[in-house]
Amino acid sequence: MQKSSDLDMLIVSVPVLDLQYPPSSPAVIKACVNAAGFRARTLDLNLVLLDLCGSKDQFWQVQYNFENVGPPAKDPADPLEAFFNQDRELIRTWLDQSIDKIQQLSPRWLGISVFSYKSHKSCLLLCAELRRRGLPVKIVLGGRGASAYALGPDHSKFKLRMRSWFGEYPPRNFGEVMLHLGLCDKVIHGDGENAVIELLAGDTANSVSARVEDIDLEAIPFVDFDDYDLKSYDYVNEPIIPITGSKGCVRKCTFCDIPVLWPRFRYRSGEHIAREMIHLYRKHGVRKFYMTDSLVNGSMRAFTEFLTILADHNTKEPENALKWVGQYITRPRSQQLDDDYYDLLKQSGGEGLTIGVESGSDAVRAHMKKQFTTVDIDHELEQFDRRGIVCVLLFFSSYPTETWQDFLETVDMFVRYQKYCASGTVYKLTLGTPYTHHAQTPLWNMQNDIGLGSKPGSDILWRLASNPDLTYYERIRRRLILQEVAQALGLPMSRNTAELNQMIDSIRNNREEINEYFDQLPHAQLHANLFRLTDHAYILMPPAIQQAVREQLDRYPDFPEQIRSKHAYINDDIQFDQNSYLVLRDLIIEQHAVTP
């Protein structure tokens, strides 16, 4: 690699990110910087870690060191030992190789894209080591993770570790803490397309809050992936490139922080988005695109224009047909959503549409302000099924108002939607982790009005006065019951291992606080597995739910095998993690408490 002393900015992505496609934010910033007359390059340091791990499975094992805070090391010698408990030599090698690459490129500015809390520890480590070595590079942090509180679920323990190593920890978000400690020179909160140009021109304060309202999305250059080795990513079935068509959301779901990050919904025209897709296809030969938008169909006018142009392209050039995936909202049934609309959606190459169903309960979704009913999602899936439009369904249990009856309605939805998994319409679903309570979301802002109490600094220690039975152990029980139902029905679950391990860590690291806050010890009871629905003699699923699942399997005995056949040759993280399931189950049951 040649030294590039005239490089104005190197924008890097740091572990841990999903490897299913190249990161888009650095590629967007690079395009903006170069268009403004400066010189920028990009580098994905996740690939450095992947190469050192030697396999995807080892990468995912090592990733937990970056996402969580384990027991403190005794007399740590440096930040790596202070904040990482396992795989230290491998991580040290990653750090050395990453800094070597940065030194070889010799940028004036190093921009670190902090995507989420999962990148906090790697960002901290990289910045601390750059400062220790005294390298002559200025550091700017950006991305959603820079504006989040450090390490999400493990914030309290991360804060204690920061105090033990650095001597202090101001009550600020991650980027502001890094700035206060002198580990970076600038922080850009919000959308940096314009702010980064001002920074390079020398006209930026140390901490900048960039606003999406000030950005003309159609004036942003097309994304620049030229520095990436696009063959190195762990694609599902075929290469995929991410692009962004809008920022923000037209919905204001109570549990979501998108309205805080982007107070206004901004979007490009459908024609502009389609033109970028066709441009990137002709440049890189990639025919599938991931829309990073919070939702692709926020503006129905722009969305319909986008569908029409891509459908026309795919019809005229079937050998060069394009496909796209993205987050999609279900809308209430209307005359606008007719057969022509769903036909156009199919012809445009839309597939893998990710829909946040969240719950099977209309009452829960109404409180969330999701603005659609079970009848609406039932209708949409029926339309998808007729046309072979594939979708991914997102769920999470234990929203604060969720009663046991609400939960049973989610179970019923899983049972009813087994047919869509068997047909391939529902490609996979996620069970998520039970609701976690985060600052500045609409639900946070209304918590006092609805009687939702919470312990400062914790996202799991909360309780709704009108629904006191929903303790943390009960939330875990419901999540595991859903997993048992999904496994018995053969429903394809995604990211299950990561979710289970996060819940395991939450209990292990916060056991005393959980017991004290809820004044409760683990007490979940096991039931005899009456119909051998899973491989375990005793399960958490109550007999009434077991009976409903058994009746579904008796009615449609071929569905599980049909589901398995749909995924037989697909490289994706769809599995039932038995080991982590048992570990988590044992953490919440009352020992020896078994109901026949």
Write up this protein.
α16 (404-416) packs parallel to α20 (472-489), α16 runs parallel beside α22 (543-555) and α21 (496-518) runs parallel beside α24. The protein is built from 24 helices and 19 strands. The protein folds into two domains: 9-218, Rossmann fold; 224-493, tm_1862 like domain (pyruvate-formate lyase- activating enzyme, Alpha-Beta Horseshoe). It is an alpha/beta fold and 596 residues long. The relative contact order is 0.07. It has a six-stranded parallel sheet, with helices on both faces. α12 links the parallel β10 (288-291) and β11 (323-326).
Write the layout of secondary structure elements.
Elements: E1 9-13, H1 25-35, E2 40-44, H2 45-53, H3 56-67, H4 79-83, H5 88-105, E3 109-113, H6 120-133, E4 138-142, H7 155-166, H8 174-180, E5 186-190, H9 195-200, E6 207-210, E7 241-243, E8 246-247, H10 258-261, E9 266-267, H11 270-284, E10 288-291, H12 300-316, E11 323-326, H13 339-347, E12 353-358, H14 362-368, H15 374-387, E13 391-395, H16 404-416, H17 418-423, E14 426-430, H18 442-445, H19 447-450, E15 452-454, E16 462-464, H20 472-489, H21 496-518, E17 524-528, E18 538-539, H22 543-555, H23 559-566, H24 578-588, E19 589-595
Parallel strand pairs: 1-2, 1-3, 3-4, 4-5, 5-6, 7-10, 10-11, 12-13, 13-14, 17-19
Antiparallel strand pairs: 8-9, 15-16, 17-18
Helix pairs in contact: 2-5, 11-12, 12-13, 16-20, 16-22, 20-24, 21-24
